[in-house]
Amino acid sequence: DIPSHLDDLPPTMLKKDYANVQIINSVDDVVKRLLSLEMASQKEKMKIKTQQLVEKVRRSPNDNGSFEVQVAMLTAKIRTYEEHLQRHPKDKNNRRRMLMDIDRRKKLLAYLRRVRYDTFENTCKQLNIQYTLPPPYSRRITKRWVVKKAFCLKVFQEARKLKAPERLKRRREWQARARAAKE
After folding, report:
1. HSE of 160 in the Cβ direction (CA atoms, 13 Å)?
2. SS3 of 40, please?
3. Would you call 149 exposed, middle or buried from its count of C-beta atoms within 10 A (0-12, 13-18, 19+)?
4. What CA–CA distance (Å, rounded) separates 131 from 115?
5. Are the beta carbons of 50 and 76 closer than 8 angstroms?
6. Phi/psi class of residue 40: alpha, beta or left (left: φ > 0; alpha: ψ in -120 to 50)?
7. Is 96 exposed, middle or buried (0-12, 13-18, 19+ CB in 10 A)?
C-alpha cells in the first residue's frame, strides 16, 4: 500500500464545515462518524490538509493570498498528484498538471527567496520543501557551434588585421593633435 500524505489526519476529526458547530457535541455517535474524516471523501480530506498547511505559514488570520499561502496550497496539490501518479503512472494529464504546479511553486519560491529570504526559509522548513537552485545557463556545445565559433573568430581577426594600418594612422593623427594642443 502506498503511503499517503493524508494519513496523518485522525479519522475522528470532523469535516471542515462541521468543526466549529457547537451542537456536534450533543449528537449521536453514528452522526459524528458520518461527519468525521472516517467517512469523508478524498476531496474533503484534501481541504483539511490544505488548511493545515496554510495555517503553518499564514501571516495573519485573514491572510489568504500571500506568496507563502499560495506555496502551501500548491504543495498540497503537488503531494496529491504525486500520490495519484504512484498509483496511476500512465496518467499523462495529471503528470502535466503536477509539473505545471511545480513550476508555479518554483517561481513563487524564487520570488520569496529574492525578496524576503527569512520568510522563504521559514516556508520551506514548515512545509518540508527541498529547494534547489536553478542551474546557471549553459549552452549545449555541438560540433556545428564549435566550427561556427572558430570561423567567426577567424573572420574577426582577419578584419582587425585589415583595419590595423588605418587604426594606427588614426592613433598617430590623434597623438599629433594632442601634442599640438599642448604646445
Report:
1. 6
2. coil
3. exposed
4. 16
5. yes
6. beta
7. exposed
pLDDT of residue 2: 67
Q: How many CA atoms lie within 13 A of 31 on its CB side?
A: 7
Residue 49 contacts residue 5 (beta carbons within 8 Å): yes
DSSP 124: H
Q: How far apart are CA 98 and CA 74, in angstroms?
A: 9
Q: What share of the chain is helix, strand, coil (3-state, %, to 5)?
A: 70, 0, 30
Residue pLDDT, tens place only, 166-178:
999 999 999 999 9
Orientation angle between helical segments 92-115 and 67-87, nearest 10 degrees:
150
Assess whether pLDDT exceeds 80 at residue 154.
yes
Provide Rg for the chain, Cα atoms: 31
Rounded to whole angstroms, the Cα distance separating 80 from 42 reads 10
Name which of 22, 24, 52, 53 is nearest 36 in CA terms. Answer: 24
Contact by Cβ (8 Å): 83, 5: yes
**Has this prediction a pTM greater than 0.85?**
no
Residues 37, 14 contacting (CB under 8 angstroms): yes
